[in-house]
Amino acid sequence: HVQLVESGGGLVQAGGSLTLSCAASQSVYTRFCMGWFRQVPGKEREGIAVIDVDGTRTYADSVKGRFTISRDNVNNTLYLQVNNLTPEDTAMYYCAAGTFCTGWIRSPPIGRPLYWGQGTQVTV
Fold first, then answer.
1. Percent of the chain with pLDDT over 70
2. For the chain, first and last CA: distance in Å?
3. Can you tell me the distance from the alpha carbon of 94 to that of 46, in angstroms, rounded to the nearest whole number?
4. pLDDT per residue as tens digits for the range 1-50
5. Sign (positive/negative) of CA torsion 61, 7, 69, 11?
6. Can you tell me the distance from the alpha carbon of 90 to that of 72, in angstroms, rounded to the nearest whole number?
7. Which end of the chain, N or C, is surrounded by fewer C-beta atoms within 10 Å?
8. What single DSSP character describes residue 53?
9. SS3 (DSSP) at 13
10. Which helix (H) or strand (E) holds 83?
11. Residues near 92 by Cβ (< 8 Å), separated by ≥ 6?
12. Residue 24 contacts residue 33 (beta carbons within 8 Å)
């Protein structure tokens, strides 16, 4: 069983930046594609950034150019650098692991992750 633990969320002013981290309990990044989702109360959880096993990155239009997903395979950590934040970015952010992750970004999404973290709150 894979455990994912997010950190790095917080309160930030509009225009500010944060780095979100997701630590995995085992070596997952060479076996699963990884992604970041976010959710606000009353709305569906949406996929915003994914990174495949081969390193290919895909972003939702709402974050393209402002957010960057990356991973450290040695330390089993996934990152999301979030820049130029706006109040519309306020949400609970979750990391996830699974297969066929590019479908998570689509609208409507295709497929679901196998594993989820508990989330970290970002408030702008």
1. 100
2. 34
3. 10
4. 789 999 999 999 999 999 999 999 877 777 889 999 999 999 999 999 99
5. positive
6. 26
7. N
8. T
9. coil
10. none
11. 38, 39, 40, 119, 120, 121, 122
12. no
